[in-house]
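Bench notes, afternoon.
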Amino acid sequence: MRTKFAASVLSALLYAQGLLGFAALASVLLKERAHASEFAAGGDMASGPSLLVVR
């Protein structure tokens, strides 16, 4: 009885660790994708003089 309980607890912990690992990987990939699109949008801006005047 105790062995089955320990095995089920270990299995649940491994499953949870796998889910957390997948979530971490997905968040890193999405963050890198957001940064890549940010740089692409920044390249569309004009490279001429700025319209802002600092006093």
